[in-house]
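Let us practice reading a record.
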Amino acid sequence: MNNKTVNFEIEKETKNSIRYKEVPDEGQPPIIGSLYVQKWFAGNSKNIQITIEKKD
C-alpha cells in the first residue's frame, strides 16, 4: 500500500486559513490529525481529501 487517501472535515476558521480535522477510517488512528489550508485555496469547501504517496 503506497497510496492512502485521507478525508478531512472543517473544524475551525482562522484569519487567513481553515483548520480541517481528519476523519479516520473506522477503528484506525489518525494519520495526519489537523491540517491548515489557506482560505484563498480552500474557498467554501467543508470537506477535503488528500492523497499521500509513500516513496521508498
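A brief commentary: The chain has one domain: 3-53.
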